[in-house]
Amino acid sequence: MExxxxxxxxxxxxDDPSRRKQExxxxxxxxxLGMTVIDTAEMYxxxxxxxxxxxxxxxxxxxxxxxxxxxxxxxxxxxxxRSCEHSLRRLGTDRLDLYLLHWRGSIPxxxxxxxxxxxxxxxxxxxxxxxxxxxxxxxxxxxxxxGSRCAVNQVLYHLGSRGIEVDLLPWQLExxxxxxxxxxxxxxxxLRKGLLTDGTVREVAQKHGVQPLxxxxxxxxxxxxxxxxxxxxxxxxxxxxxAAFELELTExxxxxxxxxFPRPARKVPLDII
Length: 273
Ligand code: NDP
Prior knowledge:
Elements: E1 8-9, H1 20-32, E2 37-39, H2 48-57, E3 65-70, H3 80-91, E4 98-101, H4 109-121, E5 128-131, H5 135-142, E6 153-156, H6 168-174, E7 179-182, H7 199-208, H8 212-220, E8 226-229, H9 235-243, H10 251-260
Helix pairs in contact: 1-2, 1-9, 2-3, 7-8
């Protein structure tokens, strides 16, 4: 299945009732502009994000690809079905396009995988995956019978945090398990000091007539095998993020960015927020 390289994150969306109208409008605009993959979680505002998305996608649900996540403590036999049904109700839909284990907890990965497969059989989800799993965890998961059906791993990835390029990303790509990149804007630069003010990032942005954050976004999807999920809650930010679809970084741009923010020389533990 072909998906657009840029979708929409929604962490903290729905938390502030006074921003609700603007946030719904931003998500709807994002869908119109092609960012149809929408990422949420039962954790986000304890359901507030999912409820807001439900309102935003009403009438256009079939144009979207809805992703939600289950808390680790709900990802076992007996609880996951209820969690999934609550997410479906809040989102106003009868199936999730993708359901993720939010991060690894104490429930065995094999049990979660089996339960996910049961949800697929029941038609409540179309496919499932995981989030925040490093290479060793991915090997363990995909070594189990049901775990081999894992469709995706969603992890932190931005220009200032490139650890996955050492082993997790190539390992996944060899097995046809795509990466979804969260915090691709490094939370507007907050996750890596000096990222947005860096001379190379600014030069590349200037050369293309775009903002530094758009460079970050285009960079995160440059390979064609990573799907990025920037979160934006204003029309202006949504437009800028969608415009990154058109931004093609040149070999020279990529080389300069590589030199400014090299990937680590050897394995580092997965960056997680
Ligand atoms: P992002 O890297 O997407 O950054 C979001 C911040 O950038 C917001 O403050 C937003 O402001 C701002 N912003 C967005 N677009 C622009 C723009 N064009 N110009 C200037 N500022 C901009 O951070 P997130 O941590 O939210 O990550 C994205 C998504 O990934 C989450 O929302 C969530 O869906 C997912 N995620 C998943 C995790 C997991 O464990 N699986 C963990 C963390 C995130 P504003 O809102 O004002 O537009």
